Amino acid sequence: MDWKNKMSEYMTMVNDALENYIGEHQTVNAEVFEAMKYSLFAGGKRLRPIFSLAVCELLGKEAKQVIPYACALEMIHTYSLVHDDLPAMDDDEIRRGKPTNHIVYGEGIAILAGDGLLNKAYEIMIDHTLKLEKPILGLKAMKSIADASGTNGMIGGQTADLLNEGKEVDEKTLTYIHHNKTGALIAAALKAGSYMADADDNEAESWEKIGYTLGLAFQIQDDLLDIEGDASEMGKPAGSDERNKKMTYPALYGIEASRKKVDELTKEVQTFLKVYGNESNFLSALTNALMNRRS
Amino acid sequence: MDWKNKMSEYMTMVNDALENYIGEHQTVNAEVFEAMKYSLFAGGKRLRPIFSLAVCELLGKEAKQVIPYACALEMIHTYSLVHDDLPAMDDDEIRRGKPTNHIVYGEGIAILAGDGLLNKAYEIMIDHTLKLEKPILGLKAMKSIADASGTNGMIGGQTADLLNEGKEVDEKTLTYIHHNKTGALIAAALKAGSYMADADDNEAESWEKIGYTLGLAFQIQDDLLDIEGDASEMGKPAGSDERNKKMTYPALYGIEASRKKVDELTKEVQTFLKVYGNESNFLSALTNALMNRRS
């Protein structure tokens, strides 16, 4: 199967499941459900869940095994964007070409919608894990995701990012921010996918490690696109990092060195994937596409 | 043992465990840890965790069995207060006699500290459940807490509360808000405590049900104190609900009817507890103390 067909097959699986998971509500709390759905279906690329599905399938299990954990990752990613866009954080009014959550629903509901998405992620994972034949695998997938999302993971990265806005940061701080703000969830996606395919801790940790490499390549590529990209393709104005005084890899090392770094990291990922032969064709093609994207 | 000694024994167990769970951090993300600790140790009564510990012990197991789930409940309760106090929500500057989180740390960090506490609650529960001999019990305790905290529980209640601020609400809406905003976490505390003492689903659900009764009594008593209480004892100005145009039970039914309702609900709880004989002495005394408190 062509990798793009596979991609859209995965995408449909994820979108259908997300729709289903948002579930029922009463009139009195309808607004928070609407706000959650608004951001969850605002055109996300579903990269994190797709990574989970692909790793699970690559390791010989059905992709659907990991669906609840994959969807939880997407909900956690989405909540982090909703809160990140708030006036007290990045103060962004546009994301993916659409008004951000608090612009549409107001700040109070946007805060609650973020909280709701984060909590829902755990509701889904716990519910599914309770029904598993081997709950321990689900618990390990959950632990990968929970640790990556917390104050020693994604939230830690957001904290460092927020506190250093407008400041010159050193390499150590920039690495910490990238590693945690972007890397951690991508690494958890790969790790959780491997656990749901019965991987042992060693194999799961090697997937996690390569996930951090992939995450860093993705982040630097993102920063390069922010400088060079076309606003209409990006869904946000080009150069927004510079205007927001965000420290980035290209700002610290220059464009050429950053491109070289993306190439090196991509090669590292491809070398890792090669060990799995043809089974890794999809992930290999997706990695290349991400590193050559224009938006 | 006198119930007040028992209370302070439980309190020490919870505080020590919370201190321990907050854990290690690096310099770069220290601020979010400080903000989490600030609100977590701002003088909370630890009611929800103490309910969990007491139910677990009442049912014949060691109270410490439920500590991770009890502490998770306190973290979830605390995060909900941090977010609730934000300018976009209730806009409160004082809680328990101290400046609220965003007054001390700024709105951005307060949002992240709330997110961090919510996520940490799940990190702790997942970590512990992985080590259990019967992970299914931990998963059931987690499910009780997750469902109660979400958009069909506490967050749903906060949504309805936020959207109805300054409006005349009917009995149905007020019941929804109380049931979900306050009742759900108290009910989950009792339910989770019973699961960690090996209760079956039927028994756990009867604890959950009486938890909602207890939660409603507690909420009405809180609203009565807001009208009648002494500001210095309450840690917040008396009459703040009226100034914030919050709809309350006393505002809808009057003070006398509200007092009568508290008495009725308390009797219902005591009748339930009586079945357990002397084992329920602590919970019985605590319930009476809560309904006769002045702050």
From TrEMBL, chains A, B:
<dbReference type="GO" id="GO:0004337">
    <property type="term" value="F:(2E,6E)-farnesyl diphosphate synthase activity"/>
</dbReference>
<dbReference type="GO" id="GO:0016114">
    <property type="term" value="P:terpenoid biosynthetic process"/>
</dbReference>
<keyword id="KW-0414">Isoprene biosynthesis</keyword>
<keyword id="KW-0479">Metal-binding</keyword>
<dbReference type="GO" id="GO:0046872">
    <property type="term" value="F:metal ion binding"/>
</dbReference>
<dbReference type="Pfam" id="PF00348">
    <property type="entry name" value="polyprenyl_synt"/>
</dbReference>
<dbReference type="InterPro" id="IPR053378">
    <property type="entry name" value="Prenyl_diphosphate_synthase"/>
</dbReference>
<dbReference type="InterPro" id="IPR033749">
    <property type="entry name" value="Polyprenyl_synt_CS"/>
</dbReference>
<dbReference type="InterPro" id="IPR008949">
    <property type="entry name" value="Isoprenoid_synthase_dom_sf"/>
</dbReference>
<keyword id="KW-0808">Transferase</keyword>
<protein>
    <recommendedName>
        <fullName>Farnesyl diphosphate synthase</fullName>
        <ecNumber>2.5.1.10</ecNumber>
    </recommendedName>
</protein>
<keyword id="KW-0460">Magnesium</keyword>
<comment type="similarity">
    <text>Belongs to the FPP/GGPP synthase family.</text>
</comment>
<dbReference type="InterPro" id="IPR000092">
    <property type="entry name" value="Polyprenyl_synt"/>
</dbReference>
<dbReference type="GO" id="GO:0005737">
    <property type="term" value="C:cytoplasm"/>
</dbReference>
